[in-house]
Specification:
- The protein has helices at residues 39-42, 47-50, 55-59, 62-74, 114-120, 133-146, 163-178, 186-192; strands at residues 30-35, 78-81, 125-131, 150-159, 182-184.
- It has 194 residues and is an alpha/beta fold.
- It is globular, with a radius of gyration of 16 Å.
């Protein structure tokens, strides 16, 4: 029996399939990406607040993300942040040594070294959180899927300035058997995380 056959398969309950599809969920091959949880997008006095949007929609993911961050940090998973964007909110500030990607576009792969960092660390699975579900998170998920990464979005760890857009983005992921990956939420993820 080779070493590969001895690996226990681990999955997280997700829709439309248990994630990751191959059952290879481990700290050494899985990364959490937290996108754009910065003052401009979810902090009082930031850009979204000044635009008149309901901040509760983009602040709702903070506590679920904190739960996932804590669980993944404790088990040694890779944690990567979106742009510091004129600074990441204190609730979710990166720990020492966690890479921060300063992204100039909607997606986290555009004109950044994110793919290089993931490949250097042997990452195959990506857990996506942050804001906004329908723009930056969704774009990053599509970019990651195109590059061969197995993705899951934690829906309660994401938010949008329009709740209908949040729901539509989640629905789009689940279509066609999981066209970009799968969708789960923080509670089953934390409970089932190996």
């Amino acid at each position: 029996m080779n070493a590969r056959a001895e690996i226990t398969q681990r999955y997280i309950d997700a829709d439309p399939y248990p994630w990751p599809y191959n059952g290879e969920l481990r700290p050494d091959n899985t990364a959490l990406i937290v996108i754009d949880m910065q003052t401009d997008f979810c902090g009082p006095g930031g850009y979204v607040d000044h635009m008149g949007y309901d901040l509760s929609l983009v602040r709702a993911p903070i506590e679920p993300i904190k739960s996932v961050l804590s669980a993944m940090r404790a088990k040694g998973y890779t944690i990567i942040r979106g742009e510091p964007g004129w600074d990441i909110i204190p609730d979710l500030y990166p720990a020492e040594g966690e890479p921060i990607i300063d992204k100039p576009g909607k997606g986290s792969f555009c004109a950044t070294d994110l793919e290089l960092i993931l490949n250097q660390r042997g990452i195959e699975n990506i857990v996506l959180t942050g804001i906004t579900t329908d723009v930056c998170v969704h774009t990053t998920m599509r970019e990651a899927n195109d590059r061969g990464f197995e993705c899951v979005m934690l829906e309660d760890c994401c938010g949008a300035t329009d709740y209908g857009n949040h729901l539509a983005a989640i629905k789009m992921i689940k279509m066609q058997g999981g066209v970009f990956g799968a969708v789960s939420s923080s509670a089953p993820f934390v409970a089932q995380l190996p």
